[in-house]
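Z., the sequence and structure:
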Amino acid sequence: MSNIAKVLKAEIMRISRKEAKGATQGIGKSNTWLRKIVADLKKRVVLLEKENKRLVETMRKYQIESPQKPDEETGKARLTSKGIRTLRRKLRLSQLDFGKLLGTTAHSVYLWEKKEGALKVRDKTRQALLSIREVGAGEAREKLAVAETKNRRTRASAPKTKKAK
Protein backbone atom coordinates (compact mmCIF):
# COMPACT_ATOMS: atom_id res chain seq x y z
CA MET A 1 0.00 0.00 0.00
CA SER A 2 2.79 2.42 0.76
CA ASN A 3 4.21 1.73 -2.70
CA ILE A 4 1.01 3.00 -4.34
CA ALA A 5 1.13 6.17 -2.20
CA LYS A 6 4.72 6.81 -3.30
CA VAL A 7 3.86 6.25 -6.97
CA LEU A 8 0.76 8.45 -6.68
CA LYS A 9 2.74 11.17 -4.90
CA ALA A 10 5.50 11.06 -7.56
CA GLU A 11 2.95 11.23 -10.39
CA ILE A 12 1.20 14.22 -8.80
CA MET A 13 4.57 16.00 -8.43
CA ARG A 14 5.50 15.26 -12.08
CA ILE A 15 2.18 16.56 -13.39
CA SER A 16 2.31 19.69 -11.18
CA ARG A 17 5.88 20.49 -12.36
CA LYS A 18 4.79 20.02 -15.96
CA GLU A 19 1.81 22.35 -15.51
CA ALA A 20 3.89 24.98 -13.66
CA LYS A 21 6.59 24.86 -16.35
CA GLY A 22 4.00 25.27 -19.11
CA ALA A 23 2.38 28.20 -17.30
CA THR A 24 5.67 30.04 -16.69
CA GLN A 25 7.41 29.24 -19.99
CA GLY A 26 5.74 32.19 -21.80
CA ILE A 27 6.72 34.51 -18.96
CA GLY A 28 10.36 33.46 -19.27
CA LYS A 29 10.40 34.17 -23.01
CA SER A 30 8.76 37.56 -22.61
CA ASN A 31 11.11 38.36 -19.72
CA THR A 32 14.14 37.60 -21.91
CA TRP A 33 12.68 39.67 -24.75
CA LEU A 34 12.01 42.60 -22.39
CA ARG A 35 15.55 42.47 -21.00
CA LYS A 36 16.96 42.71 -24.52
CA ILE A 37 14.75 45.72 -25.24
CA VAL A 38 15.83 47.42 -22.00
CA ALA A 39 19.50 46.82 -22.85
CA ASP A 40 19.01 48.30 -26.33
CA LEU A 41 17.20 51.31 -24.88
CA LYS A 42 20.01 51.90 -22.39
CA LYS A 43 22.52 51.90 -25.26
CA ARG A 44 20.38 54.38 -27.19
CA VAL A 45 20.08 56.67 -24.15
CA VAL A 46 23.87 56.70 -23.73
CA LEU A 47 24.35 57.53 -27.42
CA LEU A 48 21.70 60.27 -27.30
CA GLU A 49 23.26 61.79 -24.18
CA LYS A 50 26.65 61.89 -25.92
CA GLU A 51 25.10 63.49 -29.00
CA ASN A 52 23.23 66.01 -26.86
CA LYS A 53 26.43 66.94 -25.03
CA ARG A 54 28.24 67.41 -28.35
CA LEU A 55 25.44 69.59 -29.72
CA VAL A 56 25.35 71.74 -26.58
CA GLU A 57 29.10 72.34 -26.86
CA THR A 58 28.72 73.21 -30.55
CA MET A 59 25.92 75.68 -29.79
CA ARG A 60 28.05 77.36 -27.13
CA LYS A 61 30.78 77.91 -29.71
CA TYR A 62 28.39 79.54 -32.19
CA GLN A 63 26.65 81.84 -29.75
CA ILE A 64 27.67 85.47 -29.97
CA GLU A 65 28.38 86.91 -26.59
CA SER A 66 26.33 90.00 -25.81
CA PRO A 67 26.39 91.90 -22.55
CA GLN A 68 23.27 91.44 -20.47
CA LYS A 69 21.24 94.51 -19.50
CA PRO A 70 18.87 94.63 -16.55
CA ASP A 71 15.34 93.50 -17.40
CA GLU A 72 13.68 96.76 -16.38
CA GLU A 73 15.83 98.75 -18.83
CA THR A 74 15.20 96.34 -21.70
CA GLY A 75 11.47 96.32 -21.02
CA LYS A 76 11.21 100.13 -21.09
CA ALA A 77 13.23 100.63 -24.27
CA ARG A 78 11.10 101.37 -27.31
CA LEU A 79 12.49 100.04 -30.57
CA THR A 80 11.24 101.47 -33.85
CA SER A 81 12.15 100.97 -37.48
CA LYS A 82 13.53 104.50 -37.65
CA GLY A 83 15.71 103.83 -34.59
CA ILE A 84 17.05 100.61 -36.09
CA ARG A 85 17.82 102.29 -39.41
CA THR A 86 19.51 105.25 -37.65
CA LEU A 87 21.60 102.96 -35.46
CA ARG A 88 22.69 100.84 -38.42
CA ARG A 89 23.69 103.92 -40.42
CA LYS A 90 25.50 105.41 -37.40
CA LEU A 91 27.57 102.22 -37.17
CA ARG A 92 28.08 102.31 -40.97
CA LEU A 93 27.05 98.66 -41.37
CA SER A 94 25.16 96.86 -44.08
CA GLN A 95 21.99 95.01 -43.19
CA LEU A 96 23.93 91.73 -43.45
CA ASP A 97 26.70 92.89 -41.08
CA PHE A 98 24.18 94.46 -38.70
CA GLY A 99 22.28 91.17 -38.60
CA LYS A 100 25.49 89.21 -37.92
CA LEU A 101 26.36 91.58 -35.11
CA LEU A 102 22.94 90.99 -33.52
CA GLY A 103 22.82 87.28 -34.24
CA THR A 104 19.97 87.55 -36.74
CA THR A 105 19.59 87.52 -40.52
CA ALA A 106 19.81 90.40 -42.98
CA HIS A 107 16.18 89.74 -43.90
CA SER A 108 15.12 90.34 -40.28
CA VAL A 109 16.92 93.69 -40.31
CA TYR A 110 15.19 94.56 -43.59
CA LEU A 111 11.78 93.71 -42.11
CA TRP A 112 12.48 95.74 -38.96
CA GLU A 113 13.44 98.77 -41.01
CA LYS A 114 10.28 98.55 -43.15
CA LYS A 115 7.81 97.97 -40.32
CA GLU A 116 5.71 100.82 -38.93
CA GLY A 117 5.50 101.58 -35.20
CA ALA A 118 7.10 99.81 -32.27
CA LEU A 119 8.98 96.59 -32.99
CA LYS A 120 8.35 93.34 -31.18
CA VAL A 121 11.64 91.43 -30.99
CA ARG A 122 12.87 88.57 -28.86
CA ASP A 123 14.54 89.35 -25.54
CA LYS A 124 17.94 88.17 -26.74
CA THR A 125 17.74 90.43 -29.81
CA ARG A 126 16.43 93.34 -27.73
CA GLN A 127 19.38 93.00 -25.34
CA ALA A 128 21.83 92.82 -28.25
CA LEU A 129 20.30 95.97 -29.80
CA LEU A 130 20.45 97.87 -26.55
CA SER A 131 24.05 96.78 -25.93
CA ILE A 132 25.27 98.13 -29.28
CA ARG A 133 23.53 101.51 -28.88
CA GLU A 134 26.54 102.89 -27.00
CA VAL A 135 29.08 101.37 -29.42
CA GLY A 136 30.87 103.41 -32.08
CA ALA A 137 31.40 102.40 -35.72
CA GLY A 138 34.98 101.21 -35.19
CA GLU A 139 34.11 99.12 -32.15
CA ALA A 140 31.15 97.61 -34.01
CA ARG A 141 33.48 96.56 -36.85
CA GLU A 142 35.86 94.99 -34.31
CA LYS A 143 33.04 93.02 -32.66
CA LEU A 144 31.86 91.89 -36.08
CA ALA A 145 35.36 90.75 -37.05
CA VAL A 146 35.74 88.82 -33.77
CA ALA A 147 32.38 87.13 -34.27
CA GLU A 148 33.24 86.17 -37.85
CA THR A 149 36.63 84.69 -36.90
CA LYS A 150 34.96 82.67 -34.14
CA ASN A 151 32.42 81.31 -36.61
CA ARG A 152 35.09 80.47 -39.17
CA ARG A 153 37.13 78.54 -36.62
CA THR A 154 34.15 76.60 -35.32
CA ARG A 155 32.84 75.85 -38.81
CA ALA A 156 36.23 74.58 -39.91
CA SER A 157 36.40 72.21 -36.94
CA ALA A 158 32.78 71.04 -37.26
CA PRO A 159 32.26 67.72 -39.10
CA LYS A 160 30.93 68.11 -42.61
CA THR A 161 27.77 66.23 -43.52
CA LYS A 162 26.63 65.14 -46.95
CA LYS A 163 23.36 66.43 -48.28
CA ALA A 164 20.69 63.83 -48.90
CA LYS A 165 19.23 63.71 -52.40
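The chain has a mean pLDDT of 83. The radius of gyration is 34 Å.

Let me know what you think.
H.
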